[in-house]
């Protein structure tokens, strides 16, 4: 990429880091920008996923709030995300990736927009049933495995999916659920980094710029989360993503 485009990616990476940590789905933005620059989708995806762990470095400070029951799900998460990344890096062709991406983006939009309603519904059901403080392992572990495999493949809105999953099958308070989301995303993205780093899909200058600025963005994400409603951030990302998805479908 040219120096000007790297500067653009630096700004985009900063925004992505803030969104990733404060809400979810920030990594969609650099992916879309790279595609607009003419970077092949599999390469843009691998480059962004390689840089994404930097967004969640701050999550290491939240380990003390992690429920002990998450140890096994995190191990499962690591294995599943590696599997998903290997599939994309070795088996998925560029043409198949281009066909699938617009619909994955639309799925991400639905997840982003509907999450507030889903969480409200979950809370209402929980209050009516007087849910006991127990975790449903039969749903948590498979749910984490499925979302993590998806995270290794593409990962759009995976943070939202983890938030929704934990809200549905655990009685944990929101602060713990947010910590679980960030630590799970750190786990899946780090495993994706290891897989994609061994492939020839990563544009390393761009990945390094994104990683640095995503780390800065992630560090200030907590401040943004305290001052800007997460629903506003999610809807902003959803609007951009929907336009991009429709454009990709239109031009395919």
UniProtKB/TrEMBL annotation:
Main localization of the protein described in the UniProt heading: membrane
Membrane topology of the entry: Multi-pass membrane protein
Record key words, sorted: Cell membrane, Membrane, Transmembrane, Transmembrane helix, Transport
The keyword Transcription is assigned to this record: no
Keyword Membrane annotated: yes
UniProt-recorded name of the protein: Probable membrane transporter protein
Segments forming a coiled coil: none
Transmembrane segments: 7-33, 39-57, 69-94, 100-118, 139-165, 202-225, 232-250
Pfam families recorded: TauE
Annotated Gene Ontology cellular component terms: plasma membrane
InterPro entries recorded: TM_pro_TauE-like (IPR002781), TSUP (IPR052017)
């Amino acid at each position: 990429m040219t120096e000007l485009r790297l500067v653009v990616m630096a700004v985009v990476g900063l925004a992505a880091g803030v969104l990733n940590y404060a809400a979810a789905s920030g990594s969609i933005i650099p992916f879309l920008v790279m595609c607009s620059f003419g970077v092949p989708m599999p390469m843009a995806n691998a480059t962004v996923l390689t840089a994404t762990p930097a967004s969640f470095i701050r999550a290491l400070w939240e380990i003390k709030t992690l429920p002990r029951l998450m140890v096994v799900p995190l191990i499962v998460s690591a294995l599943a995300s590696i599997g998903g990344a290997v599939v994309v890096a070795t088996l998925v062709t560029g043409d198949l990736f281009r066909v699938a991406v617009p619909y994955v983006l639309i799925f991400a939009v639905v997840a982003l927009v509907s999450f507030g309603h889903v969480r409200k519904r979950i809370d209402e059901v929980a209050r009516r049933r007087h849910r006991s403080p127990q975790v449903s392992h039969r749903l948590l572990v498979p749910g984490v495995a499925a979302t993590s495999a998806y995270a290794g493949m593409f990962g759009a809105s995976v943070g939202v999916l983890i938030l929704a999953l934990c809200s549905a099958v655990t009685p944990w308070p929101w602060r713990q659920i947010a910590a679980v989301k960030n630590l799970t995303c750190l786990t899946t993205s780090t495993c994706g980094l290891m897989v994609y780093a061994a492939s020839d899909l990563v544009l390393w200058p761009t990945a390094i710029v994104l990683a640095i600025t995503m780390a800065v963005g992630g560090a200030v994400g907590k401040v943004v989360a305290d001052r800007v409603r997460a629903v506003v951030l999610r809807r902003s990302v959803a609007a951009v993503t929907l336009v991009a998805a429709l454009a990709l479908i239109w031009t395919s």
